[in-house]
Structures are given as C-alpha cells and as structure tokens.
Write a structure and sequence with these properties.
With 303 residues, the chain is of the alpha/beta class. The chain has twelve helices and eight strands. Helix 4 crosses helix 6.
Amino acid sequence: MSDSTRPAVPASLTALLAEIGPTWGQNVPANVKRMAEEFSKIHASAPPTTRVTRDIGYGPHERQQFDIFHPENATPGHPLVIFIHGGAFTEGHRNRNEYIYSNVSHYFARHGMSGINMNYRLAPESRFPGASQDIATVVQWARDNAAAHGWSADRIFLMGHSAGGAHAASYAYDKRIHGAAGPQIAGLMVISGRVRADLLPENPNAKKVAAYYGDNASKLDDMSAVSHVSADSVPTFIAMAQYENPLIDLYCTELAYRLAQVKRHTPPLLWVRGHNHSSMVGHINTAEDGLGAALRAFIADPS
C-alpha cells in the first residue's frame, strides 16, 4: 500500500535494506545509525507541517518530557497515540534527530489523531519498572487533559518500539504496574518489541538488558511483559521485521501465541518483508504505507 502524498523510499535504500538485512544482527549499533541517517534524508525532503507543542514536563527528572503533535482537521474525541522510543533500555531519545522518531507522531497527526512522543528514564539510573511507571504517569496526564486537547480519554493507544515496546507492554499487561484501575488504554501496538528479558549470548544487548532488569536470570521471566498476558489484556497489535535484532522476532511471536491462547483468537500480527529492526519505524510517514495502514485499521477497530 502506498501514499502518493509522501516521499517514496528510493530504490537504492530498498536495495541497501536487502543487502544488510541478512547480517543485521552482526553490527546493530552501526546499522541503526545508518538507518536513521538514510530515512532522515527522506523525511527532510518533505518536512511535515504539523503543529507541535514541545518539552512538556511530566515529572522532576530531565528526561520526563514529551511533545504533543496536533492534528490539523481532527474531530472532537479523536484517538491519541503515545509513542515510546527504543534504545536498548540504556539510551535513546524521543528526538533521535530532527526527523526520527517524530515521523511516527507526524504520521498519526496527518491522519486526524493526536500524538505524544515521550522520553522516559533510562537504566542504569532507573531500573525495572521505572520506564513503565513513567508511561503510567503520561497515560494519566493524557486522560486528565483529554478535553483540553480534543482527544478522547477512552481512545488512548500506546505504541512502543524495541525496548519501548517492552516498557509499554509491561505497563499494559502487568497488574503490579498499572494497578487496580487497569491500564486505561484502548489498545497497545508492539513494534519489534523485546517483550521477554533475556541475558542470552545471542542477544547483542544482553548487558543493557541486565542494566535495566538486573543480572539474576531466575527473575527475568517474572519481569518480562510476555509473562503477564491474560484473558482481559488490552487489544494488542504486533509487528516485526524480516530482519530483526536477534531474538526479537521470537519474542513477538511468543507474545502473539500467548495472547491467542488466553483470548482464544489470534491478535493482529504483521511480518514486514524487506524491513529491519530500525526501518520499521524509520519508514513511517513515507509513501510506503503498509504498516501505517495496518496500525490505523487497528486503532479504528481494536479487537
């Protein structure tokens, strides 16, 4: 599916994705950096016009800030999508650069929704479940301020990528984190999420996982988001790339299977051919709209 109003992903970049994809996991940091650079060029060729309110604080820590992306022609009671960036639990920023990851929130604003792009506290300063507690604070802020901004408090969605997917899923599924009131969101979108904590040799970010979850392997299952799904878990959309950081595709598949087991039907699940862990979010708001259209369909009918 394509969107002719947005810049296309050039054939040269599509070829690059195919070239580095099979060896993606051998040098994740360099590949992530390359993808941010390449997709920023595309977004820079057609700068968005969305009105953005930046640097809203939601706590005393310097990282407890978010930006709001305002849709131009929204109807009252429209959805809000809160995006949680990745960064292997120890790094990352809602504005990796001028275009990444704001492209995600610009995309939703173009389609009549509000967007929040949030930072959260990082390990090792903040350990499990600190990042998910930050999400809880932002969700409550979004509910409290829904009327002032025009979105519906009953149509708040979380979208997390990579470590952000783990943090969002822990908030959504783990009753110890969201509390007796429940997560109070309409749905969760996990994009290439490391929803199981592991210290396996296959994981190039195992030390960073330990910085957030600790190095006691016997406790990791209980801290993993995937371990807390239940029959009443929020509607969930799951997407993964053909070329993922090691083990992430396994964990996304495990999440889909566990949700299917307890809910007795399969959640929306998308495997995106030709893309890698970083291009999954980098290509959002380009002419290539397959993932974006699937996300919008889920938001319209989160089941």
